[in-house]
Amino acid sequence: MATVSVLMKRLLQPFTGISEIYNPALSTFLLLLILLLTLVQLLKITRRSSNHLNLPPSPPKLPILGNLHQLLGTLPHRSLKALSERYGPLMFVYCGNSPTLVVSSAELACEMFKTHDIVISNRPKTTPANILLYECQGIGIDPQVWDRSEDFLPNRFFSNPVDCKGQDFQFIPFGAGRRGCPGISFALAAVEYVMANLLYWFDWNLPLGEVEENLDMFEVNGLVVHKKLPLHLVPTLCSPYS
């Protein structure tokens, strides 16, 4: 209240006689009224500009915040999944004042990154895009593409022709199209080398008293989505000739 009072006194100083009848309550009301009218005008301008574009479905948004209030929570990718189930696999959201197109199906991702890749390849990478895309990992757990998508079933890839190099859009951890990761070959070789050594030289078991069915698989948000409780394993050095 004191800050508002000082601000209004300074604004009214150039006007003779007005500062003498200054009322703190009235000044606060006038300031709030000005802010409200400004927000209403911004909302009208935004609606007027969006009416001229053939945009995908979009959830209701707030002035200034856009759709950020609908993405709050510990797991934003879950919020995006719920929104896509309601508004479709192609939807338009606002991260503040930044318009963002959200693609959440393998078919539309294929169309955008292969058929219309030139249109989107020259767009700069932004922080909202990185947060919303999650490096395209959300498509990898789409229940419309994968059976039991939330379960860890590595055997499903043994006889599955789906590849991770950006040609099969059901599984694109490295992106796809012209904006795909240029270091995919090096990354795959490094991961395979480390995993091969860990599996070749060690036998891995759960700690004594723990069973696989009781493992906590809850996830939390961070720089990447990870398990809420770390997985503890006991390595046993083994001989490759035994």
TrEMBL record:
Coiled coil: none annotated. Its cofactor is heme. Pfam families: p450. Heme binds at residue 181. Keywords: Heme, Iron, Membrane, Metal-binding, Monooxygenase, Oxidoreductase, Transmembrane, Transmembrane helix. SUPFAM superfamilies: Cytochrome P450 (SSF48264). It comes from the Eukaryota. GO terms for molecular function: heme binding; iron ion binding; monooxygenase activity; oxidoreductase activity, acting on paired donors, with incorporation or reduction of molecular oxygen. The chain crosses the membrane at residues 21-43. Belongs to the cytochrome P450 family. This is Cytochrome P450.
